[in-house]
Specification:
By secondary structure, the chain is mainly alpha-helical. The protein has four helices and no strands. Helix 1 runs antiparallel to helix 4.
Length: about 100
């Protein structure tokens, strides 16, 4: 299950990178890249809204899947060479202070 979630996270990262790279920091973005074709199909204002919504959706998906993936991780178990549970480490016995004359 962790592998599937990891693959979905990676795909969402690629889509997020696409959305970020297509946007123009001055607001032109997709409408400036494709010229009049995008303004006829989507409209200039709507193309930036779609890019912004796509960006926030990808961020939400990545964040949510990262939190959900924690539930599927198991705590590692330590075993000794004999196949049983490893014994806890014991501390050294307390040494007495040297005697002074």
């Amino acid at each position: 299950m962790v592998a599937l979630i990891t693959i979905i996270i990676l795909l969402s990262c690629v889509v997020l990178a696409f959305f970020i790279l297509v946007q123009n920091p001055k607001g032109g973005g997709l409408s400036g890249s494709f010229g009049s074709i995008s303004s006829q199909v989507m409209g200039v204002k709507q193309s930036t809204d779609v890019m912004e919504k796509g960006t926030w959706t990808c961020i939400g998906i990545i964040g949510g899947l990262c939190v959900i993936s924690i539930m599927f991780f198991e705590k590692p178990k330590s075993f000794d060479k004999n196949g049983g549970k490893a014994q806890s480490s014991q501390s050294a016995p307390k040494q007495s202070a040297p005697k002074t004359k």
